Amino acid sequence: MSLMTESMTMQEALNKLVSSTDLTREEARSVMDFIMSGNATSSQIAGVATALRMKGETKDEITGFAEAMREHSSHVQTKQEGLLDTCGTGGSGIHKFNISTASAIIASAAGIRVAKHGNRAMSGKAGSADVLEALGVQITLTPEQAAECLHQIGICFMFAMLYHPSLKHAAAPRRELGVRTIFNMLGPLANPAGADRQLIGLYDRTKTATIAAVLNELGVKRAMVVSSIDGLDEISISAPTRISELRNGEVVTYELTPEDLGLTRYPISEVIGGDAATNASIIRGIFNGQQRGAYRDIVLANAGACIYVGGHADSLQEGVAIAAEMIDSGKAEQQLLKLIQTTGELAHVS
After folding, report:
1. 202-233 per-position pLDDT tens digit
2. Closest Cα partner for 85 from 178, 267, 258, 218?
3. What are the distances in angstroms from CA 180 to CA 36, 49, 57, 70, 122?
4. What pLDDT was estimated at residue 175?
5. How confident is the model at residue 112 (pLDDT cuts 50, 70, 90)?
6. Closest Cα partner for 217 from 67, 92, 43?
7. Is a pLDDT exceeding 50 seen at residue 56?
8. How many whole angstroms separate alpha carbon 148 and alpha carbon 166?
9. How is the beta sheet containing 250-256 ordered, strand by strand?
10. Where are the alpha helices (DSSP H) in 194-293?
């Protein structure tokens, strides 16, 4: 393949894909490297993304794309062991509030080091970057500043747009296609700090085990990939959730109900959010104890999973109990205030 012209590499990939032939991991990595280097045309990028979607993306193809994306990203230099990310794919089409962002702060309050990766809204009304900004967090820290923030308070936020500038080459084709493709899966697979523990919400229930297997290939130690029966890319409190758990190199898939966690079942309409300001208000209300019911419980479910995956609880139920303690003791609210203060101070250091 190296003896062929670069354009032929993309053409060969397209020929394989439209013939329903899977790419090898190395071929997929080469294709993504070519895209992120700015050498592929918009038509080629759209063609590859569409053909992969129609054929069905394999573990090796997703892994190869993720490896290339990691190679082209900026990196936060820190100790990677025991480091958690809660970045999900989004794309559920349900305008819930920012559950994974609130869960990340609670997990950090419980003593887990958190390198939260996220972006502005792609399909919903407010992404993690939007809601953190509305809460008063400075989201545009450099890799060095993010590493210092993580060192000082045990949590940092990495704004995906700043860490993956090479993705700009795929932005126009993605926007013009307007359908979910392999690019929607890649954000959670390319944590700039190399997090080795993850809770990933996925929009496609059929791919939870595949993404968990990809995480294993990428060196992640423990993870839960979650997708609820009612369409959330979160652990739901309205319906069972399909979970593929990675532990000790093995992937086990099972279903989890709200009742399994000791939580009340609520209609999905009760976890709907709004714009960034609305969602920030919901998160503040949860942390200061004024917001209870469905909003609090769905955060407890997901924060509990974070604490479990982070190794600070022996079961999901224990994780939920610790998450509740972090809220009720005021520690979650204090951690949010620390994040606001520390990022503000670091952003103004010249």
Report:
1. 999 999 999 999 999 999 999 999 999 999 99
2. 218
3. 19, 9, 12, 20, 11
4. 86
5. very high
6. 67
7. yes
8. 25
9. 155-159, 113-118, 83-85, 197-201, 222-228, 241-247, 250-256
10. 208-217, 276-287
- The residue among 219, 214, 236 whose CA lies nearest residue 94 is 236
- Other Cβ atoms closer than 10 A to 41: 13
Task: Based on DSSP, count helices (H) and strands (E) in the chain, helices before strands.
Answer: 15, 7
Contact 185, 62 (CB under 8 A): yes
Q: How far apart are CA 89 and CA 193, in angstroms?
A: 18
DSSP state of 22: P
Distance, CA of 31 to chain centre: 23
pLDDT tens digits, one per residue of 244-299: 999 999 999 999 999 999 999 999 999 999 999 999 999 999 999 999 999 999 99
129-145 residue pLDDT tens: 999 999 999 999 999 99
Q: Which tokens in the block code for residue 159?
A: 């704004």
Instruction: Find out whether 22 and 153 touch, Cβ atoms under 8 Å.
Output: no
Angle (nearest 5°) at CA 340 between 335 and 341? 95
Q: Which letter does DSSP use for residue 137 in this model?
A: -
Q: pTM for the complete prediction? A: 0.94
